[in-house]
Amino acid sequence: MRGAPKIVVVVITVIALCVAMMMLRPKARALIRGMFAKADNNPAHQAVNSKPLALPLIEPRIEVFKSKRELILYSGGAVVRVFRVGLGSDPKNDKRTEGDGRTPEGDFVICSKNPKSNYYLSLGLNYPNEEDAERGLRNGLISTAQRDQIVASIRARDCPPWNTKLGGEVFIHGNGSGSDWTLGCIALDDRDIREVFDAIPKNTPVKINP
């Protein structure tokens, strides 16, 4: 039993660290998550990503395949990067409402770029799009005025309102792709989001597939 006090100390220390993690600001939690991100060892990804990225990209676009946990970056119609991603806590289903933990599906564009994100770097998606707005109106989640505001923002190539029952603030950001840990965003490892962030402009098309 001589070792019992040491075990107690270890247990208390672990509990204290866990509590401290929960109390940390999102930026600090994200930084720690990024520090422990696992390397992407997929040989197919490594083969594509080992080639130099020729900038500027030609008509860049992004495609995400949720089932494969992959983000593909295109330039001139050719695949130039393939990155592993993490998704929302409910990764299979299409996003419908605020707080459902789902990553949306459909056609979007990058409507904002934040170099000071709590999650290293972030690219904002113009979710909800017009299709989401029409569905939300049919389902009684938003009003006609809210639908019209979303549609007007989309057509003006701005970020739509992110404060309706449909949810918003869906980003492609950093701090780790090793698990489905986000609230609905698409998470990359920091080195990968840095490359994408620097390579693409606002209004880059993004297609998210099931």
Shape: globular
Q: How many helices does DSSP assign?
A: 6
Poorly predicted tracts of residues? none
CATH topology group of the largest domain = L,D-transpeptidase catalytic domain-like
CATH architecture of the largest domain: Beta Barrel
Domain unit count: 2
Largest sheet: 8 strands, mixed
Q: How many DSSP-defined strands? A: 8
What strand line-up does the widest sheet have? Answer: 3-2-1-8-4-5-6-7
Fold blueprint:
Layout: H1 4-23, H2 26-35, H3 43-49, E1 61-65, E2 70-75, E3 78-84, E4 106-117, E5 120-125, H4 130-138, H5 144-155, E6 171-173, E7 186-187, H6 190-199, E8 205-209
Parallel strand pairs: 1-8, 6-7
Antiparallel strand pairs: 1-2, 2-3, 4-5, 4-8, 5-6
Helix pairs in contact: 4-5
Features of the shown structure:
210 residues, alpha+beta, L,D-transpeptidase catalytic domain-like, 2 domains, eight-stranded mixed β-sheet, 6 helices
What does this structure look like?
By secondary structure, this protein is of the alpha+beta class. The chain folds into 2 domains: 36 residues; 172 residues, L,D-transpeptidase catalytic domain-like, CATH 2.40.440. 32% of the residues lie in helices and 22% in strands. It contains 6 helices and 8 strands. An 8-stranded mixed beta sheet has the order 3-2-1-8-4-5-6-7. The model has no long low-confidence stretch (mean pLDDT 88).
